[in-house]
Design brief:
It contains twelve helices and nine strands. Strands 1, 2, 3, 4, 5, 6, 7, 8 and 9 form a nine-stranded mixed beta sheet that branches. Strand 5, helix 7 and strand 6 form a beta-alpha-beta unit. It comes from Aquabacter spiritensis.
Length: about 325
């Protein structure tokens, strides 16, 4: 039995419907192909001058030149990074609004804050790991005499009133590094949270506070100028940027290890093609000799990762820091 011929008009209609169906199966496929075709906004959820801001501006400059569109950095500070990060979670998932997230915004805050405006895993797609850095236990040399970890412990325990400890905000890795140190050594330090690392460092230099566990890049200039004294780094290994500064672990507090990281995230639902484009350009940037030199100068570490590898890393970091937050007893309502 012969099948009847399909009329040309009906055949054309069927073809159009098939094309439409394929288009729906691949949302934003055409849109992502010419990305970016306008300005991209990169939100920094902390004030200007801190380590997050430093890496965001470096990446914005490099990505803008590589992709032919302007990448504008916007500082939206507040609530330990939650305010700016949440603004990106609510943005259109088109790749034109990104956030320079941190270990705080995407691994720590979910366990620290009783009410979170966003879910760090469900509301974002991981784009690229940008940098890892140690924190550095540093003091104002005019207010603290100690030059070693053990001297600092003794001085802090004897201080009346207690020494004050600045941080870039509640729940940041800078804050929790200090809390881990307090728990491990039994010292009493009064936490003084700031809206970012920049203003905290300024007050540490000015003598309004005594000590800080800052991200190394945002303090290394003051350390080299002699206005801050480094006592130890918080990472498991010494930093090549400060090779003569010991780790806290090797200074009599075994097992101590607390590092920070910075990375790009996009709102959940952002097309994979856009994420892959951004990831590829970040990886190219990290191979640039000038960028490698800049990272070495500030003590930053490169860890090239695909989006999937980075996503697995973020999940593991969230689980790791949840245990740290629970042990520290820190909580923000």
């Amino acid at each position: 039995m012969r099948m009847p011929k399909i009329a040309p008009r009906l055949a054309a209609s069927c073809a159009a419907m098939l094309a439409l169906a394929l288009g729906l199966a691949q949302p934003n496929a055409g849109f992502a192909a010419d990305y970016p075709n306008r300005t991209v906004h990169m939100v920094v959820p902390f004030p200007a001058g801190g380590t997050t801001d430093i890496f965001a501006r470096l990446m914005a400059d490099r990505l803008g030149k590589a992709l032919g569109q302007q990448f504008i950095v916007e500082n939206k500070a507040g609530a330990g990074g939650n305010t700016g990060t949440d603004s990106v979670a609510r943005a259109d998932p088109d790749g034109y609004t990104l956030v320079m997230g941190t270990v705080g915004t995407h691994a720590i805050n979910a366990s620290l804050y009783s009410k979170m405006p966003y879910d760090p895993l469900k509301d974002f797609v991981p784009v690229a790991f940008v940098a890892g850095v140690p924190n550095v236990l540093e003091v104002n040399p005019n207010k603290v005499k100690a030059k070693t970890v053990q001297e600092f412990i003794a001085e802090a325990k004897a201080a009346r009133p207690p020494l004050t400890m600045a941080s870039s905000g509640n729940g940041t890795s800078i804050h929790l590094s200090g809390e881990m140190f307090k728990q491990a050594t039994g010292v009493d330090l009064v936490h003084v949270p700031y809206r970012g690392s920049g203003p905290a460092v300024n007050d540490l230099v000015g003598g309004q506070v005594d000590v800080m566990f800052d991200n190394l890049p945002s303090s290394i200039g003051q350390i080299r100028a002699g206005t801050l004294r480094p006592i130890a780094v918080t990472s498991a290994q010494r930093s090549p940027a400060l090779p003569d500064v010991p780790t806290i672990a090797e200074s009599g507090v075994p097992g101590f290890d607390a590092s920070s990281w910075f990375a790009l995230f996009a709102p959940a639902g952002t097309p994979k093609a856009v994420v892959d484009t951004l990831n590829a350009e970040v990886l190219k940037t990290l191979q640039d000799p000038a960028v490698k030199q800049r990272y070495a100068e500030v003590g930053a570490e490169m860890r090239p990762m695909t989006p999937d590898e980075f996503g697995a890393f973020v999940k593991s970091e969230k689980e790791k820091w949840a245990k740290v937050v629970k042990a520290s007893g820190a909580r923000v309502d």
